[in-house]
Design goal:
457 residues; alpha+beta; OB fold (Dihydrolipoamide Acetyltransferase, E2P); BirA Bifunctional Protein, domain 2; eight-stranded mixed sheet; five-stranded mixed β-barrel; 30% helix; binds 4-amino-1,4-dioxobutan-2-aminium adenosine-5'-monophosphate
Length: 457
Amino acid sequence: MKHLDISEAVKNADLRGHTAVVCGWVRTYRESAAVSFLELSDGSSFPRLQVVVDKSSLALDAECTKLGASVVVRGTLVAAYKGEGNELNAESVTLLGACPAEYPIQKKRTTLDYLRTIPHLRLRTNTFQAVFRVRSVAAQAVHRYFHERGFYYVNTPLITASDCEGAGEMFRVTTRPWNAAAKSEEEYYKNDFFGVKAGLSVSGQLEGEVAAMALGKIYTFGPSFRAENSNTTRHLAEFWHIEPEVAFAELPDVIELAEDLLKYLIKAVMAECPAELKFFDSFVEKGLLQKLANVANSEFAVLTYDDAIKELEKHNAGFRFPVHWGSDLQSEHEKYITETLFGRPVFVINYPKEIKSFYMKQNADGKTVAATDLLVPGIGEIIGGSEREADYAKLVAAMDERKMDKAAYKQYLDLRTFGSVPHGGFGLGFERFVMYVTGMENIRDVTLFPRSVKNIM
Ligand code: 4AD
């Protein structure tokens, strides 16, 4: 159907006096004695197009005036009678799809909780349209950032036999019903599709390392899956993961890249989505624009895990889970560090090796690894990364300590046999980034069809 996007129809002054065809959903309807007004939205921009119907020359089908109905309108674009931009003087208004009165998206603001129960319709609200426009712009910016800096985009497998994070949080991939008669897991999976236990990948990192060991600088941008039982506002069972991996890089290089990427993405969204960010600043997180401008122009802090624990211990009485050296940081600790202690993003580095993954480079102190998590106010951890252990013997020792099956990681170990180099990378949770730039507080509200514990609508 040949038609003009409403974003263009509203703002392009050169189109005044020209005939245009637009399509959209009715967002408001009102009338006076002589004229009817329809406001149409097609998702292309915040401003809706006002359609003006002269009652004396055009009889409007009542179905075309209902909230949520879809219509196609032909008419002449003219300067808006009030305000800026254009409006459309209708010559014809044709119904595409009627919308009954029980349409759940009504004019008054509905709650996010309620909208979560109608994921197929909530995108018709201003809030969700803005979220998904920002999400799209940010995704394009991710690819642009890496492409402009010579990174290759690789697609790592989603079905895998190795659990990258080693935390046993993988969804199983199987074609067989469970057979309780099987004597062992190996026997059971021998007859399964792949002949071994397989699952949905929690991270593309291990295969990303393979690519970086040949292509130098790579990134992946795709879904990761976690079967963790974390029913929180920042965890999904299926999330999108941006994972750069760089050869000849050490922890400071990984940190520099993470900070630069985050600032680039924030600036891209600020430049390309000013109307959306203004909306979020007014209705979702007061001060959002100032926060983003500050972050885009500030130095992120770097804090060792040792120092983080020293600071947190002073405040232990105020925590649900008091910390000591060796504790994993919970979200209350992450928030305290980034919101109370620093008021800006903080890279925490050099974590105890026991609480981090097997592949992280072991530091000379024998106790910590060259890992980093980037913590940001309002969200906590948004990035997790590290320099990787490039030394074959040390990597094998770390795997043995964790009683891992080395045969399953032969290819990964081979990378340390054939021309091993220092290298590292990180994972940025894309939804967490979108939460951060929009101020949306629940990860389910930045995801089209969120998957989480007991939720697969
Ligand atoms: O810290 P994580 O687990 O790190 C890894 O997976 C590494 N293999 C990444 C790498 O070095 N290439 O996850 C990285 C990021 C987190 O900081 C978070 O933003 C996001 O992925 N993330 C989740 N986002 C939504 N729901 C979940 N369940 C998430 N788990 C991790």
